[in-house]
Amino acid sequence: MPRILPRIRRTRRGRFQLRLPAAERALLRQLAEELRELLGTEDPALARLFPPGYASDPESDRQYREMVRGDLTAERLAGLQILERTLDSTSLDEEEIGAWLNSVNDMRLVLGTRLDVTDEMNERGVPPGDERAPRFDVYRYLTWLEWQLVDVMATGLPQAGNEA
Predict the structure, then answer these.
(1) Are 142 and 118 in contact (CB under 8 A)?
(2) At 8, is the secondary structure helix, strand, or coil?
(3) Strand, helix or coil at 10?
(4) Which residues pair with 17 in a beta bridge?
(5) Residues 60, 45, 115, 48: is their CA dihedral positive or negative?
(6) For the chain, how big is the Rg over CA atoms in Å?
(7) Which ranges of the chain have pLDDT less than 50?
């Protein structure tokens, strides 16, 4: 089995080098566009992006949503804009890599909600004949990419016991 090289690595200068093949960049571009379109809707797939503030009090929850939904949506759209602007880049800075992480996580959460992903599905996958298999493969890719983003960002954190 061929070894898959990491898609993202931290450079000595503190930037983040992207090594994404064209097909992966195209997929991320498509997913970003789909998420951008969804964010202006009340689609149930967005439930994990906008969890209830007051699950047991519908009126307080409605007021909470009215108060924060616009700001949360604007933040997500700004992150998507950074991701889309830098999709063809080979290098990202701290702000850009953070926007990538947030956007990839949002894409993954929406797709996972649509697929109704369970722990069992995460462990075993879905059968090849299952109609969800192609989208589940995309979900797994986003999970893998998110893990790489978190891992590469963590390389810049102080080691335990070495804090200044």
Answers:
(1) no
(2) strand
(3) strand
(4) 9, 91
(5) negative
(6) 18
(7) none
